[in-house]
Amino acid sequence: MTELYRGMDRTALRAAYDNVAAVADVAERMLNFQARSTALYEAVPCRRDLRYGPLPRQRFDWLPCGQADAPVFVFIHGGYWQARSKEDFAFVASGPLGCGFNVVLAEYTLAPEASMTQIVGEIDALLAALAADRDGLGTRGPICLAGHSAGGQLSALYRAHESVVHAMPISALVDLEPIALSWLNDKLQLTPAEIAAYSPMRHIGKGVPMTVTVGTAELPELVRHSEDYVAACRQAGETVAFVPLPACNHFTILDDLARADGVQMRALNEGMKR
């Protein structure tokens, strides 16, 4: 065995990070997510595919809650930076909408078309576009920047952004080293500089309060990422609420996020008061 990371070789790394293989009903669950997302788009007034840049996937959806000066919940989807779209996960907007947030569903260019450097830069461009509010939507309210899995890494990277008042990494990947050593790097082609620059675990600096969530039934490596990140942030004196969700896996944690009375939205509402 050729040890690559924390006692794991390439085969073990795949087992440790393959969320799809770890959950038996992923195909059915994704179809359910997509159906619920379609229903939400039909039921909720929204403006779709607004532009924050010239490339095809540099777009976002705006779902207003109907309250003036409401905070904005920006959600960045996962998919290991190389799969999925905002349309797959739009259903999660039900939770923040029900709690009085306006919602932005963010899209970004995927690998291999985009490098990690470009993907990270696109989130910066999105936040700049929201701050400028060129479309007159009302996006200038205080932003909670949330993201799931790969999106959790992107949300954590911007916890010091001037537009963000709270960050919510969900099942986040905060160290890119094991990603670079696994099959996931076939498309990402991460460079050593990117691993160093874009691993939130390596940049525990001053930033906004966070609510970090993870399912207790997720792969142990995913749980470890969240636990280690929370511990490092707290050691640095940062304000972090850690919210492990009992029995939730990498996908069912999103069912909870979609509920206004769910564990995560209750924790976020409390965290936004700090």
TrEMBL record:
The keyword Hydrolase applies. It holds the Pfam family BD-FAE. One of its GO terms (molecular function) is hydrolase activity. InterPro entries: AB_hydrolase_fold, BD-FAE-like_dom, GDXG_lipolytic_enzyme. Residues 67-158 form the BD-FAE-like domain. Keywords: Hydrolase. PANTHER family: AB HYDROLASE SUPERFAMILY PROTEIN C4A8.06C, KYNURENINE FORMAMIDASE. This is Acetyl esterase/lipase. It comes from Paraburkholderia bryophila.
